[in-house]
Amino acid sequence: MQILEVRSLKKSFDNTEVLSDISFTLDEGQTLSIIGSSGSGKTTLLRCLNFLEFADSGLILLRGQKFFDANDAADRSDKAVREKTRHFGLVFQSFNLFPQYTALENVCLAPKLHLEKGSKEEERAIEEEGRILLDQMGLSDRMDHYPHQLSGGQKQRVSIARAMAMHPDILCFDEPTSALDPELTGEVLRVIKGLAAKNTTMIIVTHEMSFARDVSDEIIFMDNGVIVEKGPAKDVIDSPRNERTRQFLENYSRNA
Amino acid sequence: MLATVTATLLGGFLTTLKLFALTLLFSLPLGLVISFGSMSRHAILRLPVRFIIWVVRGTPLMLQLLVIYYGPGIIFGNPFWNGLGEGRFIAALVSFVINYSCYFSEIYRGGIQSIDIGQYEAGQVLGLSRSQVFFRVILLQVVKRIVPPISNEIITLVKDTSLARVIAVYEIIWEGQSFIKGAGIIWPLFYTGVFYLVFSGLLTLLFGYIEKKLGYFE
Question: What is the ipTM of this complex?
Fold first, then answer.
């Protein structure tokens, strides 16, 4: 079943067009990876989906319903955005964990603040779920650690748990392993693979081509703000149809 | 003699402490409000606030005391602050609060602007409101960063209170000086230094403790 449809999304910064006419769809339970060189617009696309940027024009539909219309000012109000943003989770390249909270507190902060009344039982239930999430991330012995006491890979796994605690419909990753030492990327990629195996709907911006090939159902290749190629993951990586995709992948494997 | 002098100086030091504590009580929160004004997206708010900060930081505190004490009387044509000790104390307090709020606001602004934008974005994508992001995520990180410059400013305030004597607030220096005219001795004036030293020593310990308390995160 289709969960997300993006229609003709456009975004410019100071007269430079970063996204020009982006359209794609995503089915529930599928993993979509977005690849492309720096400056191709893939991070901006993710930020538009999470309302950290507003698209200049275009439409986002969720489960077939109009979700965000760039031309409707009401969709940009603080309150509307706060409501909408909960449908998307975002895992940042640089983690952005809250340093003054422990791993568990990082995971539980937002769900607790969203409680209407916040009774003790509700808070306990959230903490219990936070523990389960961190346990799934392989961090059962790190729950009470502060971010500065964790390795990069552990921090990123906490931030994945933090995003999941809000039960987003779609979980987005913005180059989740780019800030990690090479020997730490594996543990994060394994966790994301585990989520894919459980049919979590995900959009992943990544530079890890073999990972994208293995984990994704579909891959989008972006260049200069347009989707150049979209198709089943193995097809795009192993036998790209477009010349630019081929060049990008060749350069990539030469440098990797 | 020492006992009499100590008792008199203690009386003056009580006024010093009162001025110190009340200044902090009002200027620490007011500084935060001013810092928001100085960071406002709206120029109509930001520019006047920055102008006031420029004036307050760009002129001597002693001059500000004199302007606040005598200025309103000149403009409104009659004594604005009642000439008794109470009126002079309030005039001094107002001057100190204005002056220190502006200095604190610049420290807050520096602290707030030093926080990584990613912290705001992380809060936003988790659906937190602006005020939740500020009070639950940003504020404590700002506090941790500004404890050293704020403590510096607070220790300066301890000694700046002595400026209040220019409008005849009977703080400790005033009392120490009174022994020159009254008893022909100058050592009580020098002795006042001990009171300042002990008090700022205690404050240094307190700030060290707070810094240590906030050391649990980075």
Answer: 0.93
